[in-house]
Please model this.
Amino acid sequence: MVEKHKLKVVLLTGRTIEQGVGKELGKITSEYAESVSVCYMDPEDMKKLDIKDGANVQVSTAFGSVVVKAKKSLRAPHPGVIYIPYGPWANVVVDPETHGIGMPTFKGVPATVEPAPDKPVLGLSELLKQQFGKG
Amino acid sequence: MPVVKAVSCPVCGSLCDDIELTIENGEVVKVKNGCAMCEAKFLSHRSEHRIRKPLIRKDGEFVETTLEEAIRRTAEILAEANYPVLYGWSNTSCEAISVGIELAEEVGGVIDNTAVVCHGPSLLSVQDMGIPSCTLGQIRHRADLIIYWGCDPWSAHPRHIERYTAFAEGRFEKSAWRGYMAKIRSLIGLKKIRSAAKRLVLKEPSEIEARLKPTFVPSIAREGRKLIVVDVRRTKTAEMADFFIQVEPGKDYELLQALRALVRDQELEVDHVAGVPVEYLEEVVDAMVSCDFGALFFGLGLTMGGAKLRNIDAALSLIRDLNMRTKFVIMPMRGHFNVTGANMVFTWQTGYPYAVDFSLGYPRYNPGETSVVDVLLRGESDAALVVASDPVSSFPRKAAEHLARNPLIYVGPHMDVTAQVADVVIPSAFVGIEAPGTAYRMDHVPIPLKKVVDPPEGVLPDEEILRRILSEVRKIKREKTKAEAA
Amino acid sequence: MIVNLYPLKEFKLPVIAECINPEVFKGKSIEEIGRLEVWEGNKQRRLNELFKLEAEEAESSPEAPVITIHGDVSRVRRIGAGMKNGEIVVKGDAGMHLGEEMRDGKITVYGNVLGWAGSMMRGGTIEVHGNAGDYLGAPYRGSTEGMKGGKIIVHGNVGREAGAHMKKGIIKIYGCAGQFVGFRMKGGTIYVQKDCEARVGACMVDGTIIVGGCVESVLPSFTIEGLRKRVKIEEGEVVEAPFYLFTGDLTENGRGRLFVAKGPNPHLSHYEKFL
Amino acid sequence: MELLIRNGFVFDPINGVNGEKMDIAVKDGKIVDKVNESRAKTIDATGMVVMPGGVDIHSHIAGGKVNAGRLLRPEDHFKDVERKTAVTRSGVGYSIPSTFTTGYRYARMGWTTVMDPAMPPLEAKHTHEELSDTPIIDKASYPLLGDWWFVLEYLRDGKIEECARHVAWMIKATKGYAIKVVNPGGLEAWGYGRNVESLDDPVPCFGITPREIIRGLCKVNKLLHLPHTIHLHTNNLGKPGNYLTALETMRCVEDLAENGKPVIHITHCQFCAFKGDDWRTFQSGAEEIANYVNAHSHVTLDMGQVIFTDTTTMTADGPFQYTLYTLTGNKWTNHDVETETSAGIVPFHYKRKSYVHATQWSIGLELALLIKDPWKIMMTTDHPNGGPFTAYPRIIAWLMSRKAREATLRKINPKARSRSLLPSISRELDFYEIAIVTRAGQAKALGLKNKGHLGVGADADIAIYNFNPETMDPAKNYRAVRRAFKRAAYTIKGGQVVVKDGEVLKHMDGATMWLDVQLCEPCEIELNENLKRRFKEYWTVEFENYPVSEDYLAVSHPIPVKADV
Model:
């Protein structure tokens, strides 16, 4: 599974209580950005990549690539599964295909994770500028 | 200090209506009975991130403008559009949604609500199967078996368990809270005994385990309400459960169909389904068919991946099957506080719960074709009005891109992500804090929302803003007809 | 008569044009055809505002006109919807609901076609040389009235739920198929020459599904019945290969037949112990 | 605004007017003696039938259950659409039309007052939101009270007056119009997936029987002086042999009648007039029911006529709907409401060739024709249970024309045809009787003083149909009857012309009527304290969030009622 410090995983996105609180406080608060620009990982997977809690990682799928902070999952064990809270960061990498029902594939997207010590986690407005050229 | 009681919380689909707010100088200063999200929401109306003045993008930058100008611009964009999208609606009142539908009809647009990216697939399957369900009080009074599947109420609906299910006090079923506390205590005790045994007796660990086990009967055999959680991760809710089934990501459909076969007393020709041993499943099925009243709640874990809508098809079929044996109900855990209301108003006015296309002058519905994400992905729309929602933070990038590329109007209280890439931004009052209205709880019970404080000066409720846009659109259309006639 | 349609522009908005139907064109002059109503977004237009129309007399004059569309009409929906005779040829991609509720006649697409092609079809033939979208031959939302007859041939891949609720007729897919092929089908035949995503035949009650390639998995609610040396798809088309025969779906007390080629599916060999 | 309708054949049974050629004058939304002929707008109704606007005593048009039905059935809507016009909103049909379309379609047929018969109290706001979005027609709704825990407990304890006070509070809180009882006791039992099977079957956990509930609520109804009787959907509905339950139900309140006035309304009676032990031996029990009703005066009925079509069944009778689902395997929605009631929805196709369905069709018409006094039986389809209300013109034709009945009889299941009583019934209703079964009788049973007639002071709700009874015989020209009732020549609502030649001219709000039940004063506070105490135990919403405020009614029309308690 590990090839040059790159791990093949299944990406899930979803709700966390921190994201829930963050979105109610306001989307331009730092609480919100910090709550959703993260990626929860199984501790064993983090060991495989040799990264620590809070390290920057690059998550890539067939649809895009984004840098977020890796966080040790409290909901482990779930080896091979990573979890990014709903938000603009997750949206870069989810699968837009709706299979004719209107619902994109937000959960269960094949992805890779690799350490990205040199790449920054973009702030919200930088991310919007990068993705949409607006904001 | 005035205290307002019985306030409904405009956050999640549980719509707790027992919140007590303390108001001081026209501001909410204290929130009682609410969860963390509730507190954050009620305190956020004073946030510095509020939008206070309408904004229009000029040469790529926002400039402040008057409400009249912002509404005029909005109306022009919508009246000129050949295929506009009107999206959002789940965080506002039914009264505002009603005006939104009239506006969509007037401009011949596609109107869609956030169900499309949460429980839209559930609605599609309900349209195939129907849904045996009930109000939450029925579960509180009667359910002796509660299943949460692909949802984590502890994080997303924090008071759901205490108000409506396992830890609620009902007429025929009592709260399982005490049993749960006893379990926690015994687990802590068990840990202590274990470490003490290790230190003092120095026996083989397996021997200690063997001695300890018999006193801790598998809790699924225990009397009273039982809680089963099915999820891909061991969530907080899963930790409270009597029985936790960790399903392989994307394999819920197989698990549900296997349960159905077992409920029908059929044998399976496999040992494991979705990573779960079939013997475990048999135990779970026993608990299901032997309960007096079971309730299955499901979340986005079932709708957003894998078999998507057909996960729900299987879940609904499972409940149909179970009703041949006992009483069983099922309910989606609706996210936004009024997404159910949006579905309701859409349905009574147009016949369909979401993804309604008015471009031919009458309601048409076919998610996949008329749903907003697909319309955006195919690049068909030429303008968008977003009300009470934040699609740029919830849609896949490619869909959000098309929104941002075309004229985009945002109506809402906060400088949301969508607002930041919009062309016209109209600030609105917080529904349920600064404006009254009606919202529907996840079980379709309508709950009134209160106005407890005034909105900032000059900021109107969504309903009023939409009315003004609608009348401006009609004015523009009249002007145009006149000009054409002349 | 042959009527040639040339799109006048690259369509950005959805176009609803169920008037593109030999039955409707029949007996009309090219001017009259040009005046037929279509919708582009929320504006009503005439067919000749969107297409250049040309008529040519065919050598042998068939009863109903032949309509040929030259170019990309992937935004144009409901082409040939409800058609009862005649022929439509699309030289390019076609939009959603192609040949919906079609009763007879023929539609050929030399490109891809989007979702709901042949939805609720009763008869006639649709042949697609490229890929087809989701819900091929499937019913409208909430309805259980699937395909009741006719034939659909797709030479490329298809999306999800091909042949859902099918009662009669045949669907042949010479590429790969997405999830839920033959979902809740009650009769008829579906053939997938190549690979199939998971949940083939879910909740099927009757009918036949034949998969020549690899299936991701067979649902636990199917039971193995035996091995077959060959399977007949339709008159004159037989696939020679050992096939596992499963029946299901048990959850619906179904007796649908699911043939899965043995060769490409070694992961199913554990079923052989039940034979 | 003044209006003069000239020279029509007027059928106004409440005032004894039977087809006389006369003028009807309207001023400020009311019928008046005369108007200034030079100022008034004139409608020439020469050669046309003039009747009061239609009244429907039982039609599921709004609320949670109806909307769940709409949501359930996109395939019911997508081929029956209404395009937006300069004056009207768009919408869809067929069996469960969207709200705007519901209002327009009723108005097009000349109906102006419709009662929604099943409102779960907890979800009353929903019903009212939809009613307010149903244009043109006036309407009201009946709260479901037969399985409400308060009612079960008070009646069990013999506290009729306490019960009456709480029912009064509930009617006001829900802005309701009458006491609706559905499968009494059965809905509470359905909470655990069970049912009750006879009038004396005890309700699990409550120690009360259906008989006690029915009698108790009849007494409550009298104590409160409500304008309508209790509105009852019987136990065992939809089961072979249930005509006996229906007869027993009617008998069980015989002694409560006073002065020959009705005390009970048995709704959609067709569904509880089944004879036989099972579906094979199933047959009509209409004759027995009709004989009983002909001999007694304390009962009114409505038909619940079946139409051969694909429709959507929906009732508060959860266990019945479950049975229907197990019979058909169709989609099934169930919605139990805590402390109060339940609901179920199953799509259903009535087929001509089915013995049972064809017999059901026959039963409805047999009831209407065998019951001699038209004031006792009202025309309904229990919309959409027997079929959509848009089928009324066809039912009118069957009632008026033996020829129309025979035309349909020829096409139905032969066994059903041979057993049907219809061939032996020669009765053909005339326009006077049709006016009774479609408006006057319904208004009278509902106690609506200003509806269902054209006397001075009545609401100016008028329907004009293009059929000349002088030159045409409806029994022979039943197709013309159908056409006339399908598209009214004029519908006048509150003095305004809203429909002309079957086209809607105006989108306007209709009123929502509700009973402002006034109790003897001191008990109100006591009542509230009592309710508050039990609220947290029984419901999952707060006491003050429960009642429907008047803001929910687009046009609120309270009707004061003075109670005896």
In short: The first strand of chain A starts at residue 2 and ends at 3. The interface with chain C takes residues 99-101 of chain A (CB under 8 Å). Strands of chain A lie at 2-3, 6-14, 38-41, 56-61, 64-72, 81-85, 107-115.
